[in-house]
Amino acid sequence: MRKTFLFCLLLSLIYVPAVFGEAGFTQADRERLVRLEATLQTYMQQNDKRLDDMQRSTNQRFDQMDKRLEFIQNLMIGMLAVFGSLCGVFVGLLLWDRKTFKEKAKEEALKELEEKWRISAWIEAFKTYARGEPRLAEILKGVHLL
Q: Is residue 114 in a domain?
């Protein structure tokens, strides 16, 4: 928009004298155009410099945002790794505890059966009785006690 305004200003400086009665293109017009061109050149250089500065600052801001996003991404990956590790350790401890509890429960159950019910004496009694009773011998063989 500014370029359009400057172009219109330049054209008005050239054609206004012709409209208001001055004839031709004088030395004063020439000098005025040279000054206008120098001013316009200075303005364009300043404008280019401002645009370059704006682009540089914009690029710096994008680089800063990229670094922040990369940091956040790395932080999230780290947090996910820690969470996954903790879950793995928890599951491992859970399985280990379950295995040891199961073995301990089995030992205690066998011990209680032996102490309270004297199960080995019952088994020996059935084996002894099965020597004279073939039907009981077949049953005991079926459950792998003979």
A: no
